[in-house]
Amino acid sequence: MSHLPINVLIVEDNDADVQLTLTALRDARIANEVHVVGDGEEALAFLKHRGDYAAAPHPDLILLDLNLPGKDGFQVLEEMKADPELKTIPVIVVSGSDRESDITRAYSLQSSAYLVKPVDVDEYFTAIRAVKELWFHMVAPPPRETETPV
């Protein structure tokens, strides 16, 4: 298994949650690049390399909030999983909602995990650190598509 930097895409419109997540990810023992977008449209532009994101990297992991302006997290997940080039990217839903219907819907749309955002800042930090430990150090990610000349 190679030690390429892990590209993480955070899709989150709450600046405080973004900063806390960035802090929790910052001290990873392996290299990682973290990119942040603030809404569903921007997330899909990033993933599909449109507009300002033409040179965006292919994320190895996405942390996706559900409650986003414009396209919500469910719509982003639905579009991703319908796209053959995006459907294998692991997506962890990070949401303030603990409603059973939201959790069920996220898993039915093939999210890899569902994390209910703890209200307490220390607990939120601990939860993101646990995600980091699992996904950066223990789980084998899907292989990256390697571009081969035609």
Describe what this molecule looks like in 3D.
By secondary structure, the protein is of the alpha/beta class. It has one domain (6-137): Rossmann fold, CATH 3.40.50. It contains 5 helices and 5 strands. The chain has helices spanning 15-26, 40-47, 73-82, 100-108, 121-138, and strands at 6-11, 32-37, 61-64, 91-95, 113-116. A 5-stranded parallel β-sheet has the order 2-1-3-4-5, with helices on both faces. Helix 1 crosses helix 5 and helix 2 (40-47) runs parallel beside helix 3 (73-82). The chain is globular. The mean pLDDT is 88.
Distance between the termini: 26 Å
Domain module tally: 1
Can you write the helix and strand succession as a string?
EHEHEHEHEH
The residue fraction in helices comes out at 25-40%
Shape, principal axes of CA atoms: globular
Number of E-type strands: 5
Strand order of the largest sheet: 2-1-3-4-5
Per the CATH scheme, the topology name is Rossmann fold
Main sheet makeup: 5 strands, parallel
Question: Architecture, CATH level 2?
Answer: 3-Layer(aba) Sandwich
Q: Whole-number average pLDDT?
A: 88
CATH superfamily: Response regulator
In the CATH scheme, the class would be: Alpha Beta
Question: pLDDT below 50 for ≥5 consecutive residues: which ranges?
Answer: none
Count of discrete alpha- or pi-helical segments spanning 4 or more residues: 5
**Beta-strand percent range:** 15-25%
Global structural class = alpha/beta
Specify Rg, calculated over alpha carbons.
15 Å
